[in-house]
Design goal:
- The structure holds two protein chains of two kinds.
- Helices cover 0% and strands 58% of the residues of chain A.
- By secondary structure, chain A is mainly β.
- Helices cover 0% and strands 50% of the residues of chain B.
- The chains are: A mainly beta, B mainly beta.
């Protein structure tokens, strides 16, 4: 059974810092991996999608990498801003297509 | 990206009543939609897979008679919480994607259900 783990569970940083969020999964047979952002009481905002054949994806200050063989992904956020404060969720897709989510990393960026 | 809508965005109901939540793919067709539930400070847990024209597939521990799913068309799936109780209060989110397993899933904005 696929399990997705995110470390750390919570992170507080001052504005301007570069930071890395980690995601690991137990079964490397995935189709893709997605990173989402969720603000309190809100739905999900898709940030980046990495297909299993890809190594990384970039969007603005965000960069996500995927090492499928080792079951790891990282989300790199450059020059963090207070507006980046949210919970970041990692999810993988396997045969059967439903996404399996980690518990998330709650990020707080102070000004 | 594609757009998925949910209605209502929030609902408050009395214990024992039924509540229907709609999930629509606005600009694409989806033979499969997924329903998730999220309790406070928890991650999303898959409840069921909704298949157009056939019965939904429920995850272990999810009562199919309590959470009725109807996928009547390629753009609409509904989740009905029957005889709701306070413990059903949660955030319900649907998603839809393409035909292929590796397609991106697009999520609705979620429905906040509060049962008094």
């Amino acid at each position: 059974k696929q399990e997705v783990t995110q470390i750390p569970a919570a992170l507080s940083v001052p504005e301007g810092e570069n930071l890395v969020l980690n995601c690991s999964f137990t079964d490397s047979a995935i189709y893709n991996l997605q990173w989402f952002r969720q603000d309190p009481g809100k739905g999900l905002t898709s940030l980046l999608l990495i297909q299993s054949s890809q190594r990384e994806q970039t969007s603005g200050r965000l960069n996500a990498s995927l090492d499928k063989s080792s079951g790891r992904s990282t989300l790199y956020i450059a020059a963090s801003q207070p507006g980046d404060s949210a919970t970041y969720l990692c999810a993988v897709s396997q045969a059967g297509t439903a996404l399996i989510f980690g518990k998330g990393t709650t990020l707080s960026v102070s000004s | 990206g594609a757009v998925v809508s949910q209605h209502p965005s929030w609902v408050i109901c009395k214990s024992g009543t039924s509540v229907k939540i709609e999930c629509r793919s606005l600009d694409f067709q989806a033979t499969t939609m997924f329903w998730y539930r999220q309790f406070p400070k928890q991650s999303l847990m898959l409840m069921a897979t909704s298949n157009e024209g056939s019965k939904a597939t429920y995850e272990q521990g999810v009562e199919k008679d309590k959470f009725l799913i109807n996928h009547a068309s390629l753009t609409l799936s509904t989740l009905t919480v029957t005889s709701a109780h306070p413990e059903d209060s949660s955030f319900y989110i649907c998603s839809a994607g393409g035909e292929r397993s590796f397609d991106e899933q697009f999520f609705g904005p979620g429905t906040r259900l509060t049962v008094l």
